[in-house]
Amino acid sequence: MIFSNGLLADVTGDYDFFPEAASTFAESNDWLFGAISWIGVAFFVPIAFCLFYFAVKYRKANGEKAESNVAHNTPLEVAWSVFPSFFLVGMFVLGAKSYLDQRMVPEGAYEIGVKAYQWGWSFDYGAGVTNPELHLVVDEPFEMAMRSQDVIHSLYIPAFRAKKDIVPGRLNYMWFMPTKVSETVSEAELAEGKALAKELGVWDLRKIGFTQDGYRYYDLFCTEYCGTNHSQMNA
């Protein structure tokens, strides 16, 4: 969840190819993923076409003697070896830049202590303030100083495109800057949520989709299998 002017930020809605982009990393990462995917398609389609075309064109009936052709085209072979390498180098450079951007914590980032345990989270904001929910300020960089008290966990916020393993006996870091301000539900939606909570006997965030105060939220998951209740280790 993200604070902006005292409000909690939120993300819900119909499923899309990507979750809503809500951090400075999201736009560049999504663009790079899309570019690599389309490059892959651009190479796959003609290669697959040639594969099937030549398989049909040069097929031999059962028992028919195979023919041998040892001729080759040097310029063509050099071209299809060298030309794709430019794409590979470009993808590596852009991917490395994106990785390094996420690894290099900017000066002045707010530090939040993260403790992962079976099967929950504790976020330490300093001055003795801890909470099982992650609260952030929009348009400010935050550094997560993460420890595990038992097994390997992994903190993942899909809307931020941010993920990092948390290893026992080791202090791991990650950072991000949220860019989306909180949203509130309408009075009618809030009333419907309260009615559903009364029916369920508990305020189920997964089914209702917003907090009891009427604010939506971002999902935070553990994405490293850590035991029996791994699937419930979210915030």
What is the topological layout?
Blueprint: E1 2-4, E2 7-8, H1 24-57, H2 74-103, E3 110-117, E4 120-126, E5 129-131, E6 136-137, E7 142-148, E8 153-157, E9 162-166, E10 172-176, H3 187-200, H4 205-208, E11 221-222
Parallel strand pairs: 1-6, 3-7
Antiparallel strand pairs: 1-2, 3-4, 4-5, 7-10, 8-9, 8-11
Helix pairs in contact: 1-2
Main attributes?
235 residues, five-stranded mixed sheet, 4 helices, elongated
Structure overview:
Helix content is about 35%, strand content about 20%. It has helices at about 25-55, 75-105, 185-200, 205-210, and strands at about 1-5, 5-10, 110-115, 120-125, 130, 135, 140-150, 155, 160-165, 170-175, 220. Mean pLDDT is about 85; it is low at about 1-15. Helix 1 packs antiparallel against helix 2. Strand 4 (about 120-125) and strand 5 form a beta hairpin. The radius of gyration is 25 Å and the shape is elongated. The protein has four helices and eleven strands; from the N terminus they run ββααββββββββααβ. It has about 240 residues and is α+β, with helices and mostly antiparallel strands. It starts with a strand and ends in a 13-residue tail after the last strand. A five-stranded mixed sheet has the order 5-4-3-7-10, with no helix packed on it. Strands 2-1-6 form a three-stranded mixed sheet, with no helix packed on it. The protein has a three-stranded antiparallel sheet with strand order 9-8-11, with no helix packed on it.
